[in-house]
Amino acid sequence: MKIFSYNLNGIRAAMRKGLVDWLKEANPDVLLIQETKAQPEQIEQEEFEALGYHCYWHSAEKKGYSGVGILSKLKPDHIEVGCGIDYIDQEGRILRADFGDLSIMSVYVPSGSSGDARQDLKMKFLGDFQQYIRDLLKEKPQLIIGGDFNICHTEIDIHNPKSNKDTSGFLPEERAWLSEFLEEGLIDSFRQFHEGELDRYSWWSYRANARANNKGWRIDYQMAGEALKERLSGAEIWPDAMHSDHCPVSVDID
Amino acid sequence: MKIFSYNLNGIRAAMRKGLVDWLKEANPDVLLIQETKAQPEQIEQEEFEALGYHCYWHSAEKKGYSGVGILSKLKPDHIEVGCGIDYIDQEGRILRADFGDLSIMSVYVPSGSSGDARQDLKMKFLGDFQQYIRDLLKEKPQLIIGGDFNICHTEIDIHNPKSNKDTSGFLPEERAWLSEFLEEGLIDSFRQFHEGELDRYSWWSYRANARANNKGWRIDYQMAGEALKERLSGAEIWPDAMHSDHCPVSVDID
DNA sequence: CATCCGACG
DNA sequence: CGTCAGATG
């Protein structure tokens, strides 16, 4: 089973850039989407349905902002929209599809880059999300959490750790949170298969030709519950897909 | 002397579409511009200066809105910014360049299409503008007024007079105003040289492929003071220039 | 330096 | 159906 996660930075813009052709080629069983920046009725989901996908969306209340989605070839037994915490669910950041024991979540962690208020909210989100996942893992240990965590974990996950040590997304407290989060019983699947590999990023600023120079950050992850450890058969980052300032990240499970 | 008038619907967008190449080719002595939608400092006027133009702007207070300009190869003796009526000058709608006895004005008449309040303001503008021009003609009878009047004068100036009889821009009171305005002692220079010609328009809606089907309106004019009558040597509309929803209109004076 | 909105036309 | 601004990232 091939699961991709992709922050599209606007699903409508991404579709104009050929997302559907890419999807047909990549042909994942499940695509986790972040930053749809659209209400469901604004998304031409027939294009995905024509490829055999069932489509599920959780949009922010604010138009053009945030929003997650899940496309799945198999029809899920259950879709869980949001996490029941109002300030999170208003912003359309969490969506989950359950397939028997296997549970697959799309998450979009808030960015803190626009100022203190949003950084504070990001840290609050991280605390609440960690608690939510701790509880969920008890019920659904075979959990995949794919998405944009808006955090680089280690120095090899960012092109310039020195100059970014005070930048939201690479702050010590954010990196520490990600370590703690994994200790809840999750595996960073990319690192499972690519330990120590350098220059592997999933996001590049649009500014200053950052992507052409691979001056990026790895902030998109496929986290797998440890119960899935033996079923993980691969994980990848796909920097050649050019529909967004992010690229897709994938995990394979047997 | 070749004078063009062109509502650019955003001078920055028009420049991205090759306005400067067009200008080099058309090579007018004076270009009257409407809807710059920019503050002077946002306009790359060096590109015009490189072609030998002096540049003058009158922008609206509101950013990205309205705004007129004049480019001139000859340096004017005087530039008159606005008309001294505050509600008009706040919106950057009138700019004049004087060259000895010859006076050339760029005008952008308000649109009434967004609702009653703006239609009311348009009618008020028309009254105030008529009075302003009546007075100005006494002082400067050799006056050219080029610009977007946002009014079609007669049934041959619009592709569908019947269905537009209640549409702002072709209302009976607007058409009557334009007749009265000409009676102040002005000549619609295009009609001087193209009496009765059909399907000659200067604006097309972006909707429904209107331009490809030439379903347009003639709302851009080069009005000439009757004192200039004997000096008028031609007038044209240039629908092949594609930098805006309007096209340029020109007048030649000896 | 992109995406999207909403105002305006 | 475009342009522009402003919010957001």
TrEMBL record, chains A, B:
Record bears the keyword Hydrolase: yes
Note on cofactor: Probably binds two magnesium or manganese ions per subunit.
Superkingdom field: Bacteria
Marked site (Interaction with DNA substrate) residue numbers: 246
Site label Transition state stabilizer, positions: 150
PROSITE patterns: AP_NUCLEASE_F1_1, AP_NUCLEASE_F1_2, AP_NUCLEASE_F1_4
Gene Ontology biological-process annotations: DNA repair
Cofactors named for this entry: Mg(2+); Mn(2+)
EC number(s) given by UniProt: 3.1.11.2
Name under which the protein is recorded: Exodeoxyribonuclease III
